[in-house]
Write a structure and sequence with these properties.
By secondary structure, this protein is mainly alpha-helical. Helix content is about 60%, strand content about 5%. It has helices spanning about 5-10, 45-60, 70-75, 90-115, 125-140, 150-160, 165-170, 190-195, 200-205, 210-230, 240-250, 255-265, 270-280, 285-295, 300-310, 315-330, 340, and strands spanning about 15-20, 25-30, 35-40. Helix 4 runs antiparallel to helix 5.
Length: about 350
């Protein structure tokens, strides 16, 4: 259907083909006739190709030359007839606006959409880094764009209003009387972001646009939240279960028994020590792989991470399951049992 074609493909590409079976989409660039492929749920390859073409245009044509006419020249009375769609200067302004819109403004938003709505499952840990990174991106481009400064300011205001609780918690907005009622004010978002080794505290250093003293205060607050979360009881573990491996290891004897006891004592260090050790070793690793490898070395933090990482970042995966179920459970398959469906 024509209405289902993404806007970026409508604008800069032709001969659009959607392969539902292979979950692929292809189109040909209008500028260079290159054939671009992407999955059926993302448009990042098309946006990236478009970005490269406009970067070449800006470099060769001087789109941001100060001698170029302003938009007001095209809408002022008495001059409308002097310009038309094929006028060279009007083309320069049009391409400059599109460059601001596609490259400087919307590119990170497209990546965030692909991240949260694509096939990959994303946990709640990506929410805070994603929102603060988008805000930082808009803040950096307020002065650099030529025509769309107002649009970028409006986008930033909307972002800060919709996710006000996050900005208040990281001290980038004034604290309200009742923070708990603000959207996304749950401290779980901050805890999950820090306990994801692919983010750690890097987002706090780079994207929290405050002074160093405020960043240190926010970091200390998040650490306290993690330690408090560790104190909460879990239904799957008890004190007896945690002490059982220690007693078993003490009853063993052998050539390297002392080494194993030392390792066990290290893994039972206090949550504060485990948290400091985690912050020293996390460096952009995969979340699942990291906690699978360090679950015994950081048992207290592992229990907290399991609880917070089980929350999805968006409802897209659940909605996709229901959509797939609707495709399979047709009315003419009335004899399809739950057991067959689950397989």
């Amino acid at each position: 259907m024509e209405g289902a074609i993404p806007k970026i493909i409508k604008f800069g590409f032709k001969n659009y083909v959607l392969d539902v079976g292979e979950k692929k989409r292809t189109a040909i660039c209008k500028a260079c006739n290159s054939k671009i492929r992407d999955t059926s749920t993302t448009t990042s390859n098309f946006i990236r190709h478009h970005k490269e073409k406009y970067e070449v245009y800006i470099h060769t044509k001087g789109t941001f030359d100060d001698t170029q006419p302003q938009i007001s020249q095209f809408i002022a009375q008495g001059t409308v007839q002097l310009y038309h769609c094929n006028h060279q200067q009007q083309k320069a302004i049009t391409n400059s606006i599109l460059s601001d819109l596609i490259i400087n403004c919307n590119m990170p938003f497209g990546e965030a959409t692909d991240l949260s709505q694509g096939e990959k499952l994303v946990t709640i840990s990506a929410v805070v880094p994603c929102i603060l990174s988008l805000n930082h991106h808009l803040e950096n481009h307020k002065e650099s764009v030529r025509y769309l400064g107002g649009l970028i300011c409006s986008l930033q205001e909307s972002l800060q209003r919709l996710f006000e609780g996050i900005f208040v918690n990281v001290r980038m907005a004034d604290e309200q009387n009742d923070v708990a009622t603000l959207p996304f004010s749950d401290p779980l978002y901050l805890i999950a972001a820090v306990l994801d080794p692919s983010f750690g505290t890097m987002w706090l250093t780079h994207d929290v646009l405050t002074t160093e003293n405020v960043k240190e205060a926010v970091s200390a607050m998040i650490k306290n939240l993690i330690l408090k979360e560790d104190c909460k009881p879990t239904p799957t573990t008890t004190d007896e279960d945690e002490q059982m491996p220690v007693a078993e290891s003490e009853s063993q004897s052998g050539l390297f028994t002392a080494y194993r006891k030392k390792q066990k004592r290290d893994s039972c260090s206090s949550p504060q020590i485990q948290l400091n050790q985690y912050l020293d070793i996390c460096d952009g690793q995969s979340c699942l792989q990291f906690w699978a490898m360090n679950r015994h070395m950081l048992p207290s933090l592992f229990r907290v991470a399991v609880r917070v990482m089980s929350v999805p970042a968006s409802s897209a995966p659940v909605e996709r399951v229901f959509s797939h179920g609707g495709v399979i459970m047709r009315h003419h398959r009335s004899q399809l049992s739950e057991k067959v469906l689950s397989n």
